[in-house]
Amino acid sequence: MKNKITLLIIIFVFILLIGGSYVLYNYLSPNISSDKITTNEESQKENQTSQQENEPAPDFTVYDKNNKEVNLSDFRGKPTIVNFWASWCGPCKMEMPDFEEKNRALGDKINFLMVNMTDGSRETVKIASDFIKKEGYTFPVYYDIKSNAAIAYSVYSLPTTYFIDADGYVVAQSTGAIDGETLQKGIDMIKEESGL
To answer: HSE-up of 22 (CA within 13 Å, CB side)?
Structure first.
Protein backbone atom coordinates (compact mmCIF):
# COMPACT_ATOMS: atom_id res chain seq x y z
CA MET A 1 0.00 0.00 0.00
CA LYS A 2 2.80 2.38 0.93
CA ASN A 3 4.50 1.75 -2.44
CA LYS A 4 1.26 2.54 -4.28
CA ILE A 5 0.89 5.86 -2.45
CA THR A 6 4.51 6.77 -3.20
CA LEU A 7 3.99 5.86 -6.86
CA LEU A 8 0.81 7.96 -7.03
CA ILE A 9 2.62 10.94 -5.46
CA ILE A 10 5.46 10.62 -7.99
CA ILE A 11 2.98 10.44 -10.89
CA PHE A 12 1.08 13.45 -9.53
CA VAL A 13 4.30 15.51 -9.19
CA PHE A 14 5.32 14.48 -12.71
CA ILE A 15 1.93 15.57 -14.11
CA LEU A 16 2.26 18.91 -12.29
CA LEU A 17 5.72 19.45 -13.77
CA ILE A 18 4.54 18.65 -17.30
CA GLY A 19 1.46 20.84 -16.89
CA GLY A 20 3.52 23.69 -15.46
CA SER A 21 6.02 23.41 -18.31
CA TYR A 22 3.19 23.54 -20.84
CA VAL A 23 1.66 26.64 -19.24
CA LEU A 24 5.05 28.35 -18.98
CA TYR A 25 5.86 27.52 -22.61
CA ASN A 26 2.55 28.95 -23.82
CA TYR A 27 3.00 32.04 -21.67
CA LEU A 28 6.54 32.77 -22.86
CA SER A 29 6.27 31.68 -26.51
CA PRO A 30 4.59 34.86 -27.78
CA ASN A 31 7.47 36.88 -26.25
CA ILE A 32 10.19 34.82 -27.92
CA SER A 33 10.42 35.45 -31.62
CA SER A 34 12.95 34.44 -34.25
CA ASP A 35 12.23 37.66 -36.10
CA LYS A 36 12.93 40.04 -33.21
CA ILE A 37 15.16 42.87 -34.24
CA THR A 38 15.93 45.70 -31.86
CA THR A 39 16.84 49.14 -33.09
CA ASN A 40 19.54 51.11 -31.33
CA GLU A 41 16.90 53.57 -30.07
CA GLU A 42 14.85 50.74 -28.52
CA SER A 43 17.97 49.31 -26.93
CA GLN A 44 18.87 52.68 -25.42
CA LYS A 45 15.32 53.06 -24.02
CA GLU A 46 15.47 49.56 -22.51
CA ASN A 47 18.80 50.40 -20.89
CA GLN A 48 17.46 53.83 -19.88
CA THR A 49 20.40 55.49 -21.58
CA SER A 50 20.01 59.23 -21.95
CA GLN A 51 22.45 59.69 -24.82
CA GLN A 52 21.24 61.98 -27.57
CA GLU A 53 23.52 60.58 -30.27
CA ASN A 54 24.52 57.07 -31.18
CA GLU A 55 28.03 55.99 -30.41
CA PRO A 56 30.18 54.36 -33.09
CA ALA A 57 30.10 50.59 -33.20
CA PRO A 58 32.93 49.19 -31.06
CA ASP A 59 35.89 48.22 -33.21
CA PHE A 60 37.39 44.73 -32.99
CA THR A 61 40.08 42.59 -34.53
CA VAL A 62 39.41 39.18 -36.06
CA TYR A 63 41.39 37.04 -38.51
CA ASP A 64 40.68 35.89 -42.05
CA LYS A 65 41.36 32.36 -43.33
CA ASN A 66 45.00 33.34 -44.02
CA ASN A 67 45.43 34.49 -40.38
CA LYS A 68 45.59 38.15 -41.47
CA GLU A 69 44.24 40.70 -38.97
CA VAL A 70 41.01 42.37 -40.01
CA ASN A 71 39.32 45.21 -38.11
CA LEU A 72 35.67 46.16 -38.21
CA SER A 73 36.73 49.75 -38.90
CA ASP A 74 38.28 48.54 -42.20
CA PHE A 75 34.73 48.18 -43.53
CA ARG A 76 33.47 51.73 -42.93
CA GLY A 77 32.00 53.39 -45.98
CA LYS A 78 29.46 50.62 -46.67
CA PRO A 79 26.68 49.23 -44.49
CA THR A 80 27.89 46.18 -42.57
CA ILE A 81 26.26 43.13 -41.07
CA VAL A 82 28.19 41.36 -38.32
CA ASN A 83 26.92 37.88 -37.50
CA PHE A 84 28.40 35.88 -34.60
CA TRP A 85 28.11 32.12 -35.14
CA ALA A 86 29.62 28.67 -34.51
CA SER A 87 29.41 25.44 -36.51
CA TRP A 88 28.00 23.53 -33.50
CA CYS A 89 25.14 26.06 -33.13
CA GLY A 90 21.88 24.71 -34.62
CA PRO A 91 20.13 28.11 -34.87
CA CYS A 92 23.25 29.55 -36.56
CA LYS A 93 23.06 26.83 -39.20
CA MET A 94 19.35 27.52 -39.75
CA GLU A 95 19.90 31.17 -40.70
CA MET A 96 23.03 30.72 -42.83
CA PRO A 97 21.24 30.00 -46.14
CA ASP A 98 19.51 33.40 -45.84
CA PHE A 99 22.83 35.14 -45.17
CA GLU A 100 24.34 33.33 -48.17
CA GLU A 101 21.46 34.41 -50.40
CA LYS A 102 21.68 38.07 -49.29
CA ASN A 103 25.47 38.09 -49.60
CA ARG A 104 25.27 36.80 -53.18
CA ALA A 105 22.66 39.44 -54.05
CA LEU A 106 24.05 42.41 -52.10
CA GLY A 107 27.69 41.61 -51.32
CA ASP A 108 28.91 44.47 -53.50
CA LYS A 109 26.74 47.00 -51.60
CA ILE A 110 26.85 45.58 -48.06
CA ASN A 111 29.72 44.06 -46.07
CA PHE A 112 28.92 40.70 -44.55
CA LEU A 113 31.19 39.73 -41.65
CA MET A 114 30.40 36.22 -40.50
CA VAL A 115 32.41 36.13 -37.26
CA ASN A 116 33.12 32.60 -36.05
CA MET A 117 33.40 32.21 -32.28
CA THR A 118 36.68 30.30 -32.47
CA ASP A 119 37.52 29.13 -28.95
CA GLY A 120 40.30 26.74 -29.98
CA SER A 121 38.69 23.61 -28.57
CA ARG A 122 35.02 23.11 -29.37
CA GLU A 123 35.35 25.44 -32.36
CA THR A 124 38.64 25.70 -34.26
CA VAL A 125 39.53 27.44 -37.51
CA LYS A 126 39.72 24.01 -39.18
CA ILE A 127 36.34 22.85 -37.88
CA ALA A 128 34.65 26.09 -38.93
CA SER A 129 36.44 26.23 -42.31
CA ASP A 130 35.54 22.61 -43.08
CA PHE A 131 31.91 23.32 -42.23
CA ILE A 132 31.79 26.39 -44.53
CA LYS A 133 33.47 24.47 -47.36
CA LYS A 134 31.16 21.46 -46.95
CA GLU A 135 28.07 23.69 -47.08
CA GLY A 136 29.40 25.68 -50.06
CA TYR A 137 28.97 29.09 -48.44
CA THR A 138 30.73 31.99 -50.12
CA PHE A 139 30.18 34.79 -47.59
CA PRO A 140 33.32 36.14 -45.90
CA VAL A 141 34.20 34.30 -42.69
CA TYR A 142 36.41 35.77 -39.98
CA TYR A 143 37.72 34.00 -36.90
CA ASP A 144 37.49 35.52 -33.43
CA ILE A 145 40.42 33.49 -32.08
CA LYS A 146 41.22 35.95 -29.29
CA SER A 147 37.56 36.68 -28.38
CA ASN A 148 38.16 40.35 -29.23
CA ALA A 149 34.87 40.74 -31.11
CA ALA A 150 32.82 38.72 -28.61
CA ILE A 151 34.09 40.86 -25.75
CA ALA A 152 33.59 44.14 -27.64
CA TYR A 153 29.94 43.25 -28.30
CA SER A 154 29.24 41.27 -25.09
CA VAL A 155 28.09 38.29 -27.13
CA TYR A 156 26.67 35.71 -24.75
CA SER A 157 24.25 33.95 -27.07
CA LEU A 158 24.57 32.57 -30.59
CA PRO A 159 23.68 33.59 -33.15
CA THR A 160 23.80 37.34 -32.63
CA THR A 161 23.62 39.83 -35.50
CA TYR A 162 24.46 43.54 -35.63
CA PHE A 163 23.41 45.91 -38.41
CA ILE A 164 25.85 48.82 -38.79
CA ASP A 165 25.43 51.79 -41.14
CA ALA A 166 28.08 53.08 -43.55
CA ASP A 167 29.31 55.62 -40.99
CA GLY A 168 30.00 52.87 -38.45
CA TYR A 169 27.00 53.26 -36.13
CA VAL A 170 24.93 50.33 -34.85
CA VAL A 171 21.41 50.73 -36.19
CA ALA A 172 19.89 47.46 -34.96
CA GLN A 173 20.70 44.05 -33.51
CA SER A 174 19.13 40.67 -33.04
CA THR A 175 19.89 37.82 -30.68
CA GLY A 176 18.82 34.39 -31.86
CA ALA A 177 18.22 32.99 -35.31
CA ILE A 178 16.59 35.32 -37.80
CA ASP A 179 14.75 34.46 -40.97
CA GLY A 180 15.20 35.99 -44.42
CA GLU A 181 12.43 38.53 -43.87
CA THR A 182 14.01 39.83 -40.65
CA LEU A 183 17.45 39.90 -42.26
CA GLN A 184 15.97 42.01 -45.07
CA LYS A 185 14.38 44.33 -42.51
CA GLY A 186 17.80 44.91 -40.93
CA ILE A 187 19.35 45.43 -44.37
CA ASP A 188 16.68 48.00 -45.24
CA MET A 189 17.39 49.84 -41.98
CA ILE A 190 21.12 50.16 -42.61
CA LYS A 191 20.63 51.03 -46.26
CA GLU A 192 18.23 53.82 -45.26
CA GLU A 193 20.60 55.13 -42.56
CA SER A 194 23.41 55.03 -45.13
CA GLY A 195 21.39 56.90 -47.75
CA LEU A 196 21.20 53.99 -50.19
So the answer is: 6
